[in-house]
């Protein structure tokens, strides 16, 4: 199996599209754009059989592909009907029970369990802690750009620039020491990039690799937690293990799976947004010039536009809890729907000239951080901050930087870039 684009038959109509065929996700970006446009033009969402997943033996009955912005908004607003907890939100096929130990955190739960966890975690993010990490983002981004300049001419932008900032911030936040950054980075690559042979060479061992990576991250946080019970500091792990949040405390399993969610969700997504943004700026010199004219003033619009087009999280899944009509279509109890955020962010009914990168786009109601509902991204504020600060440093200190051709991650779930040379 290769992660590079392969020759494939042309897509001429929606009937040629199968989102469950792994080969679909190897198609070049322009073909993917074309395919989702055809799906958005259909009268009702296309229905696909479940994908073949070697480590998941029980297949479900298939899923409706929600590709329009209006459907995704509506489904997100109705979590009682479109549930995240019944078999999970992060996998099209129901998550096997043994995975829940490591990957069963709030993203894969419904209220009231979801609300309880989110409440505990949100209260642990105190204003003081958030302020401290905001300051750390500035220092970390400056030091990454120092290192970039020290290369003299360029490097792999993904591993040496984009990946380093979110990794450092999330690890510092939890209290993980610098010598463990590489360990966390490798495990989060396996968890979100398992379908790519660069991270797991043999498709048959994906299931085992995922469980091992989850177990290793859980062991790391449990060691840390044991220490913080005795020696609390001002990090998030200390807040979470000490029952200072209205007497509510996470169990060891809840802490472990929340930590895995945080490192995985906080790392890959922001890294991919920064890399994708760098490529967009290279391909759109007019937009880069415009941003350079007012680096701070145009940052908020530019960052939203990067997240819209990057859409690092391609989809999330929901299960229908009761028969329900939505935008003229019927969804039956027990069926699954997949919310393609990536497609909604290109919906021509909502975004004029939707494939154009326009840092002044206004309004920009993208769903890159999820739709309006209980699962809206917990880290959106932090991610926006990281992307803003990273580009501020790059544009001010290396304005001539350009990105080469991206080497894309082979994944249907994450719209990712593994490597991309940059030069200046
Ligand atoms: C550009 C960067 C990011 C993108 C595109 C992104 C995207 C998303 C999306 C689409 C969801 C919604 C899941 C759903 O609909 O079920 C989500 C949830 C979540 N994100 Fe992010 N995220 C980013 C950065 C972060 C960061 C930096 C963190 C951690 C600090 C984080 C932590 C979370 C958590 C914990 C959830 C689950 C929330 C819940 O279920 O209540 N994310 N994210």
TL;DR of this structure?
This is Linalool 8-monooxygenase. Helices cover 47% and strands 9% of the residues. It is of the alpha+beta class.
Offer a few descriptive terms.
424 residues; alpha+beta; five-stranded mixed β-sheet; three-stranded antiparallel β-sheet; 9% strand; globular; binds protoporphyrin IX containing FE
CA distance, first residue to last residue: 34 Å
User: How would you classify the helix and strand content by structural class?
Assistant: alpha+beta
Helical stretch count?
A: 15
Helix content: 40-55%
Which hetero compounds are present in the coordinates?
protoporphyrin IX containing FE
Strand order, main sheet: write it out: 1-2-8-5-3
Q: Which regions have little confidence, pLDDT < 50, spanning 5+ residues? A: none
Strand content: 5-15%
Q: How much is the average pLDDT? A: 92
Topology, number of strands:
12
SSE arrangement, N to C: HEEHEHHHEHHHHHHHHEEEEHHEEEE
Major sheet characteristics: 5 strands, mixed
Shape: globular
3D architecture notes:
This protein has helices at 29-40, 69-77, 97-103, 113-124, 127-150, 157-162, 164-174, 181-193, 206-230, 236-241, 252-283, 285-293, 299-310, 341-344, 380-397, and strands spanning 47-48, 63-66, 82-83, 154-156, 315-320, 324-326, 329-331, 336-340, 402-403, 407-408, 417-419, 421-423. The protein is of the alpha+beta class and 424 residues long. The strands form four sheets. The protein has a five-stranded mixed sheet. Strands 4-12-9 form a three-stranded antiparallel sheet. Helix 5 (127-150) runs parallel beside helix 15 and helix 11 packs parallel to helix 15 (380-397). The chain is globular, with a radius of gyration of 21 Å. The structure holds protoporphyrin IX containing FE. It comes from Planotetraspora kaengkrachanensis.
């Amino acid at each position: 199996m290769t992660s590079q684009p392969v020759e494939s038959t042309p897509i001429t109509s929606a009937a040629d599209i199968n989102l469950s065929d792994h080969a679909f996700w190897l198609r070049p970006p322009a073909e993917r754009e074309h395919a989702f446009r055809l799906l958005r033009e259909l009268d009702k969402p296309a229905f696909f059989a479940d994908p073949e997943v070697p480590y998941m033996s029980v297949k479900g009955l298939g899923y409706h592909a929600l590709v329009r912005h209006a459907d995704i908004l509506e489904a997100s607003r109705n979590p009682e009907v479109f549930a995240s907890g019944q078999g999970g939100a992060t996998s099209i096929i129901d998550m096997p029970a043994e995975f829940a130990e490591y990957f069963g955190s709030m993203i894969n739960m419904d209220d009231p369990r979801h609300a309880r966890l989110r409440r505990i975690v949100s209260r642990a993010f105190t204003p003081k802690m958030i302020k401290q990490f905001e300051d750390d983002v500035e220092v970390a981004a400056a030091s990454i750009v120092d290192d970039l300049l020290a290369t003299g001419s360029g490097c792999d932008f993904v591993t040496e620039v984009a990946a380093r900032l979110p990794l450092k911030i999330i690890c510092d936040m939890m209290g993980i020491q610098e010598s463990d950054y590489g360990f966390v980075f490798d495990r989060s690559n396996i968890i979100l990039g398992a379908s790519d042979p660069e991270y797991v060479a043999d498709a048959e061992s994906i299931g085992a690799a995922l469980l091992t990576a989850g177990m290793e991250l859980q062991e790391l946080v449990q060691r840390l937690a044991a220490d913080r019970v005795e020696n609390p500091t001002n990090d998030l792990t200390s807040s979470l293990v000490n029952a200072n949040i209205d007497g509510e405390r996470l169990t060891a399993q809840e802490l472990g799976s929340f930590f895995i969610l945080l490192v995985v969700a906080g790392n890959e997504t922001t890294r991919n947004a920064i890399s994708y943004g760098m490529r967009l700026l290279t391909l759109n010199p007019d937009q880069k010039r415009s941003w350079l004219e007012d680096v701070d003033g145009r940052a908020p619009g530019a960052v939203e536009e990067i997240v819209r087009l990057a859409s690092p999280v391609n989809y999330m899944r929901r299960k229908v809890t009761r028969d329900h009509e939505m935008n003229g279509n019927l969804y039956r109890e027990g069926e699954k729907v997949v919310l393609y955020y990536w497609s909604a962010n290109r919906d021509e009914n909502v975004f004029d000239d939707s494939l154009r990168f326009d840092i002044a786009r206004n309004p920009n109601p993208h769903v890159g951080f999820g739709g309006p509902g209980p699962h809206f991204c917990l880290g959106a504020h932090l991610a926006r901050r990281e992307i803003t600060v990273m580009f501020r440093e790059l544009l001010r200190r290396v304005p001539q930087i350009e990105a080469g051709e991206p080497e894309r991650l082979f994944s249907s779930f994450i719209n990712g870039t593994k490597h991309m040379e940059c030069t200046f």
